[in-house]
């Protein structure tokens, strides 16, 4: 027992998040030299891998679809804190940071994570299978949230520019939070079976892994370490953000690229977790992570930003531009065509990944 406890305490998934947080405390708020940026980046990568491990432990304990919610909600809550922190300290140039980061998160999850999951699932089984009822409902919710929060502000007339008036922002915040809460209630309650893995014939599979689930004590410890690892991920992402901004400026790239880079860093744990689930022939879990993350990113971020805007100076720019709306529309149409059959091949995975590549390229070269 003593040996087991000692091995647990010296396991890298325990040690790395704790050291990463210590490094975060030491480096927080300081201008970092190049060597320290490299050290922070290494601990950032280690914290990402540890977060994936602990999220999988918790997911195995609580089962699906609850397990898929753990990482999505945890990452999004800390992502909100990161956005608000950067907006407070960044001045006028961060007025569109919330929009850029949320839109990047939607494109990364709905094209990158979803496309990668389908690709890995199709490579394993030739055809990736999933439940179209649950996945379709999730996609419809993401589409509605994205349209209300990111498209409508471009066309409202109460304020000049792509921004909401205070009553409109309050409505969007309440609607976003309400829709997200309704989806979670449906996913974990009345229609839980719609979000469980299925076989090639569409029959719901037992979501439990072959190994025995961890004990409650181990799951609680992993949940705590998951939060610690995610704090380290987002904290280190903020620590290296000045270097990212300097690199973006030196390369003469649009400032919106900063939001894209931050979203890529923050979504690394979910990407790796979804890829692992797809390799284990649990494509539905991967899609739950992808669309659930997109939904949480909007449904939790917009209300939080709306509340924070009371103390933030300057306008809050949420409306997308023409190119971004075209990419969002392509993502929605392609997603519907992918989801409706409940089966996907390498082609659908490749199409979604190509949309992500187009987004990344146009973000850098608008």
Automatic annotation (TrEMBL):
Subcellular location(s) per record: Membrane
Pfam families the UniProt entry points to: Na_Ca_ex
Domain Sodium/calcium exchanger membrane region: 34-188, 222-362
Keywords assigned: Membrane, Transmembrane, Transmembrane helix
Membrane topology value: Multi-pass membrane protein
Membrane-spanning segments: 12-29, 35-54, 66-90, 102-123, 135-156, 168-186, 218-237, 257-275, 287-311, 317-339, 346-364
InterPro entries found in the cross-reference section: Alkaline_pH_Ca-Antiporter, NaCa_Exmemb
Top-level taxon in the UniProt lineage: Bacteria
Protein name (Swiss-Prot/TrEMBL): Ionic transporter y4hA
Native source species: Micromonospora echinofusca
């Amino acid at each position: 027992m003593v040996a087991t406890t000692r091995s647990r305490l010296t396991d890298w998934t325990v040690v790395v998040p704790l050291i990463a947080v210590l490094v975060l405390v030491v480096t927080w708020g300081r201008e970092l030299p190049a060597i320290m940026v490299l050290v922070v980046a290494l601990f950032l990568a280690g914290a990402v891998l540890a977060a994936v491990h602990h999220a999988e432990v918790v997911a195995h304990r609580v089962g699906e679809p609850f397990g898929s919610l753990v990482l999505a909600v945890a990452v999004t809550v800390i992502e909100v804190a990161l956005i608000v922190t950067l907006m407070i300290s960044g001045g006028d140039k961060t007025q569109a940071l919330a929009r850029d980061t949320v839109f990047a998160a939607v494109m990364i999850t709905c094209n990158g994570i979803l496309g990668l999951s389908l690709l890995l699932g199709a490579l394993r089984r030739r055809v990736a299978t999933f439940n179209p009822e649950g996945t379709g409902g999730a996609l419809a919710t993401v589409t509605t949230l994205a349209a209300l929060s990111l498209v409508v502000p471009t066309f409202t007339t109460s304020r000049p520019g792509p921004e909401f008036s205070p009553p409109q922002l309050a409505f969007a915040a309440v609607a976003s939070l309400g829709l997200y809460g309704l989806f979670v209630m449906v996913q974990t309650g009345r229609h839980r079976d719609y979000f469980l893995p299925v076989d090639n014939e569409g029959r719901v599979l037992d979501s439990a892994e072959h190994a025995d689930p961890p004990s409650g004590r181990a799951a609680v410890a992993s949940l705590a370490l998951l939060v610690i690892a995610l704090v380290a991920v987002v904290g280190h992402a903020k620590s290296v953000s000045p270097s990212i901004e300097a690199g973006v400026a030196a390369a003469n790239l649009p400032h919106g690229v900063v939001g894209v880079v931050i979203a890529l860093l923050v979504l690394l744990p979910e990407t790796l977790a979804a890829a692992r689930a797809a390799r284990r022939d649990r494509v539905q879990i991967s899609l739950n992570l992808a669309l659930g993350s997109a939904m949480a990113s909007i449904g939790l971020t917009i209300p939080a930003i709306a509340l924070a805007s009371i103390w933030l100076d300057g306008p809050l720019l949420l409306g997308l531009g023409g190119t971004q709306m075209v990419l969002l529309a392509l993502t929605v149409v392609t997603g519907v065509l992918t989801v409706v059959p409940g089966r996907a091949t390498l082609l659908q995975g490749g199409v979604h990944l190509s949309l992500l590549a187009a987004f990344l390229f146009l973000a850098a070269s608008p």
